[in-house]
Amino acid sequence: MEVKENVIYFKSNPMWFIKEKSGNKPNTVRLLDYKEIFYLQEWLRTDDTKFIEIECYPPVFEDKSFRRKLTDVSFIGNIIDKHIVVFSWKHEED
Length: 94
Prior knowledge:
With 94 residues, the chain is an alpha+beta fold. It has helices spanning 14-22, 34-44; strands at 2-4, 7-12, 27-32, 51-56, 65-79, 82-89.
């Protein structure tokens, strides 16, 4: 996870990336540690419109990444000292 201004960045493997980019799966599930959760909560408190950018890693497609408007962040639970978080977005055609 990386955050710059109003954009949060993640990497997805090619199998998930193609589904996420197409809109068939307009969300990503992540395991975040305590420090990342604290930073995420601080970031979400601002009133700015938030975006998510997903990068295909390794980059096997011509379109290496996409950016969407973040519509929801759900804290689902904990597992092995990690927090399960679902990031969702509205699919928009490129």
